[in-house]
Specification:
By secondary structure, this protein is mostly helical. It folds into two domains: about 10-65, no CATH class; about 75-160, no CATH class. Helices cover about 50% and strands about 0% of the residues. The chain has helices at about 10-15, 30-40, 50-55, 60-65, 75-90, 95-110, 120-125, 130-140, and strands at about 25, 45. The chain has a two-stranded parallel ribbon. The protein is globular and about 50 Å long. The two termini are about 15 Å apart. Bound molecules: flavin mononucleotide (FMN). Flavin mononucleotide binds next to helix 3.
Length: about 170
């Protein structure tokens, strides 16, 4: 899964040949990429998977770009707040802490690609076992007010290499 390139030309064909509205998807990770994919395919809209797990502000950013506005970029503190909210939101009532930390690592497989370019964050997050360790590490990388594009640092980390265990 996710190993082949996205065939936007096939989506464009579906747009011209099908009588219904077609939505495009695959590797949309920024407002600019959304603009390009809509242009390439002529699709009516987009469905986005990994991109919005990594960057939940993405739909808002796409709308801002389409209105010609400047694009909101979250800060490290915003991303930290998102991770805390995600931790609570996807936590079933009875789950043990260690199991929930394991589950969060699957989300972090996506999110971590946009946090820093070396792979160190993902390397260390895969080794934590407690909630305290998990957030201590997140704090270490995200306790700042710098804007974060959250696009994958794909030169240092190949997205396909971290997908194997990433089924949620
Ligand atoms: C967490 C997650 C769950 C998914 N579940 C399904 C699924 O149940 N059925 C399906 O056809 N595709 C599923 N997909 C694939 C997406 O629909 C989409 O085709 C794929 O992620 C490529 O889009 P993306 O580059 O925006 O992630 C899933 C993707 C993710 C990230």
């Amino acid at each position: 899964m996710y190993r082949s390139e996205v065939h936007y030309d096939y989506i464009a064909r579906a747009v011209t040949e099908l009588p219904c509205p077609v939505l495009a998807n695959g590797n949309v990770y920024s407002a600019q990429k959304a603009h390009e994919v809509l242009g390439l395919t002529g699709a009516r809209g987009l469905m986005i998977g990994r991109g919005v797990i990594r960057n939940p502000w993405l739909f808002h950013q796409i709308r801002q770009q389409r209105r010609g506005e400047s694009i909101f970029l979250p800060t490290g503190h915003d991303v930290l707040k998102y991770l805390r909210a995600l931790y609570e939101t996807v936590r079933p009532p009875e789950i043990k802490e260690a199991a929930h930390v394991q589950k969060m690592k699957k989300y972090l497989n996506y999110i971590g690609l946009g946090i820093e370019p070396t792979g160190q964050f993902l390397h260390h997050i895969r080794r934590v076992t407690t909630e305290a360790e998990f957030f201590r590490l997140c704090d270490q990388y995200l306790n700042h007010d710098q804007p974060m594009p959250l696009e994958p640092f794909s030169l240092a980390l190949k997205e396909t290499d971290v997908m194997a265990g990433a089924q949620l």
